[in-house]
Amino acid sequence: MAIELIKRKNPSKVISMVSPFIALAVTLIAGVLIFLALGKNPINGLYSFFIEPLTEAWSVHELIIKAVPLVLIAVGLSVCFRSGNWNIGAEGQFIIGAMAGSILPIMMHDLQSPIILPLMLIMGFAGGALFGLIPAYLKNKFGTNEILTSLMLVYVAQLFLDWMVRGPWKNPEGFNFPESRAFHEFAVLPEMMSSGRANWGAVIAVIAVVIFAVLLGKTLKGFEIKVIGESERAGKFAGFDAKKMTIFAFLISGGLAGLAGLIEVAGAIQQMRPVISPGYGFTAIIVAFLGRLNPLGILAAGLVLALTYLGGEAAQISLGISDKVVRVFQGLLLFFVLLSDTFINYQVRFDNPWKNKQLDQAHVDSKKVGAE
Amino acid sequence: MKRRIFMLGAAALTAAMGLAASVTAQAEDKLKVGFVYIGPPGDFGWTYQHDQGRKAIEEALGDKVETTFLENVPEGGDSERAIERLARSGHGLIFTTSFGYMDPTLKVAKKFPKVKFEHATGYKRADNVTTYSSRFYEGRYLLGQIAARESKKGVAGYIASFPIPEVIRGINAFVLGAQSVNPDFKLKVVWVNTWFDPGKEADAAKTLVDQGVDIITQHTDSTAAMQVAAERGIKAFGQASDMIEFGKETQLTSIIDNWDDYYIARTKAVLDGSWKSEETWGGMADEMVHIAPFTNMADETKAEAEKTMAAIKSKEFHPFTGPIMKQDGSVWLKEGEVADDGTLLGMNFYVKGVDDKFPQ
Amino acid sequence: MIENILLTVVTAATPFLIAAIGELIVERSGVLNLGVEGMMIMGAVFAFMAAQVTGNPYVGIIAGIIAGGAFSLIFGFLTITMVSNQVATGLALTILGLGFAGMVGESFVGLPGIKLEAISIPFLSDIPVIGRLLFGQDVIVYISFALVVGTLWFLFKTHAGLTLRSVGDNPSAAHALGISVSKVRYLAVLFGGSCAGLAGAYLSLVYVPQWTEGMTAGRGWIALALVVFASWRPERIILGAYLFGAVTIAQFHAQAVGISVPSQLLSALPYIATIVVLILISRNRRLTLINTPASLGKQFVPDR
Fold first, then answer.
1. ipTM score of the complex?
2. B289-291 and B251-257: which strand pairing?
3. Mutate to test the interface with A, among C91, C100, C277, C281 (most CBs of A within 10 A)
4. What range does the domain containing C98 cover?
């Protein structure tokens, strides 16, 4: 049996609406099978995974905390990816942004005033943006592949943070343990409500979603991003400068990743540690694609992915399954979502090889992209 | 048809809620003990030994307790949530088993004054937060003595993870032990900057062998160094767990993290209401530092090792007893003076005789 | 002593070398598979389990290759047949691989493994210094040498190699010439997965004969970096892999003799070096055009 893809003239609106639900349904079926294979009650398992984390206020707060960095980074990446620039190094920009913002509470910790936090946010954005500009500059100047340079810079950033926290930034009162001094009260993002620890970073993320939803959907800049992303040559005809766009895209995506890093350390962690991200920069790439590079979609995708992390913990406790199962489950979910998105742009036909001849006659210029 | 699907869905939902409710109800009779792990129990090292302790609780108090664990919980933003989830899901006693969980443990403990927390290797306590750790340096001193007696070349290799006080303390104790036997004994230290990377640990072990050491000891978690030592025909010490299976003719002994007794005792204390916040820093005497059988060594070495072990156990002897000089030659402890726990806990200097530049 | 140190370098370099050669072929076909780490750990766990169950490490090698290859076909199906995004799919493959390997290998933790023994080639292995290095190794190291020579010959001397490169450079043109782009890319992805699986097998059968969760410890990502470092040339991969292995080992030796440099700086060097190499090769337009697969990371969607 061969699978044949036929490009649709226009992306299917219907399928783009229902495909996330199809993916979810398939994932649920896969989940039932996994839980049965492990000898666990599948209804209990799915309940722990997808519903339990939403039944309590504190847990919803935690969901928000987990989703904020993913959403912020992914929104920036959507600008980047749409314009045809492939920034894979958001993890590094996240770290450098967090470090730039932490200069104030760690190195000038006597400076305590309400102006600190806004300054930190600005420095976080700027730090991430500047670090993001390195691959952009290299791409424009030398034509280096930005996927690879940005990925390499992640490791450089991780090691730089490690060195700083074990060396110059080590807490003088911390018994030589590798962590910075705790941030003072003016450097901590305040919590929004007393029912949990979600902080005002969530509002910043939502504002970013709205700004970029408008920018991408309703402005000339958004049009420019789209045109250049689809074809550099077409962009040139329209008078758009692809090099300037590369700079812009990395500036935004690096900056938002840096801002996310700062929000993470000033909110959830409240000090600097050798490792501050469990891979948010990479997970956000997945979130960006799950959300179809659309800021509103990214908001939803970020929440869903965050839910699988929380649900995974809930399932570990209530069912006693290991977190390996959780990761398998996450991997499958991602595959199904990526798979179902194909149906938006393509018609998929399962061919019976014996009937192929007739069909080939009918689709002379539809070309196979299939596995034999 | 539509109606029927709806009914099915409703039934499933009710069933799910019922089941979830029954899970909560069931838990109320038993004490729920929760664990937060930094790695997987399958690391055969640090987390593995904590998980052995968890299993020991179940074995000893099976009908009265129920244990759960969260594995691979990263330090940082995620750990507070993991701890809070355990506290919220009816756990009465929670062990958080990595240094980086210190502040999150205290934050959650503040919100749940009735839940008892036990944080491993930290130094901040509260009314419902106890800290506990082991005096591994007692074992390290012993290892140093054995190494000095068994080494033909008079050089041992030390695979070190991160320059935190616990690791520095171990290196110092090892050197003091070795030099109590052979004042010229040398120690080569290699920092691998990881707790767990079998490949890198193996590389470091090979490097040390090529540099001429004939005994290897490690402060990292995997069994890789033991396997390299076996292959190259030299001796080695195990770490965290008994690694004899990986080097039947290689392992001299192993420092085993034994949390079993402590975990059982603390769980019992919660059950009978006698639990108090304290600081436990247990050593050989408390069986928290367990020494694997002495193997592959001369009878005389074994006898001497047993003697030292008995002296440490009976508190007759403390490995950090003066005169001890710091690496730069300045006096740290005068004749007969014993190091205080505060200095040991924050140790950030080498003693005289360590052949390595202090990592900054 | 020099001989022993060099042997250590070979061991450290071999997994990078094999996985990077595999990924090189994948990228030459225009596909970027970021799931090397996931495929590698699948190879490691299945190789270890098969060797334990059968008692034969050679069965382990085959199991590792099959596991890595089979796992890569998931990636192939998604990115080639279903044209899903390669970057996202590769990342998801790594998540799935790390989870799945941990799950199936749970009961094999803490067992001493069966080490794959070296096969000394008579006479040749008696040559001083290089003898044992080149001719006193285990079969996987020999395969790694063969892979370099083989891919070099394949890519630049055979018609099939030309086809592969043309698919990577310009899939539309290749398609117009009647080449099945998807078939070529499937084969490339399968080869890459098998190599990653073999590299994993080397880890759990030779490097450290044991199975522990997450034992690949990021080696798959380094292999990805090496492909770029080598600017997609097999002979430069051998250089890069051995240089990387040598830097790791040299760093330990420097420490043991008392030279101390911040270890983070040393660890960062290979990545910085990769960026510099990238800049150097990119500056030379001609070199770039010759070696970089132009369609790297882009899905091939034939238009109507």
1. 0.86
2. antiparallel
3. C91
4. 2-291
